[in-house]
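Deliverable D5.2: sample structural annotation.
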Amino acid sequence: MKVLRIFLVAVGVWYLCNLLLLWPPVYGGALPLIYPGIVLGQGTPSFGLLLDAWLIVGLQLAAIGLVALWGARDPLRYRALVPVIVLTELVGSAWDIYSIVWSGEALWVGLTTLAAHAVIVAGAWFAVSAVERETAGSVKA
């Protein structure tokens, strides 16, 4: 259960950090680096709408992060969060691939975020494998 607890805490903290990173004043300043050469329309209502939409993404991640932190107190009871986290990461990966290929996202940004998604998915696999080993061991004993 220790590995699952560590995974839930790590993801919970990371998802809360994403809320801060997607906060409009922070993310608004980063967007020109993420999408170089794209006219983003800073200062227009459309740009404000874009920032608001990303804030909602941050709030959704933070909600999952808070539940993950809460669940770390009793990881076995909250292990159903793992597929939610994996699916969240797979959707994020699909968005990153789309952004790199069709939306002008800087390659280094897309590859960095894809690597982060991969680390979280690998961590999920590792945590679930550890729980299965522990559970199998306790059943045999």
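Annotation notes: The chain has a mean pLDDT of 95. Residues 2-140 form one domain.
The annotation will be released with the project's public dataset once the embargo ends.
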